Amino acid sequence: SGRCQSDRCDHGAGTGEKPHRRKLRNTVTGFAITLAAEALHCGRHGTVRTVLKLAMSIK
Fold first, then answer.
1. Fewer CB in a 10 Å sphere around the end CB: N or C, the chain?
2. Per residue in 20-33, is it b (16+ CB within 10 Å) or e — as a string?
């Protein structure tokens, strides 16, 4: 899709969580890939915030 998956990024505002992301993060590798993709795309919005948000969503 190429759209940002962080709700703090205006590229993906209001789009909600993507189904493939929900499946991906069930594995460590998938989580790492998702994390890297979001950090690369949304780096200017604050990588630390993205990491914290993803870490919280995993629990």
1. C
2. ebeebbeeeeebee
Is residue 22 included in any domain, yes or no? yes
State the residue range of the domain holding 41.
Answer: 10-58
25's tokens: 């993060």
Q: Return per-residue pLDDT of the chain as tens, 59 residues.
A: 445 555 444 444 444 555 455 555 567 777 777 777 776 765 555 666 667 777 777 65
Q: Are 48 and 56 in contact (CB under 8 A)?
A: no
Residue 4 domain flag? no
Number of domains in the chain: 1
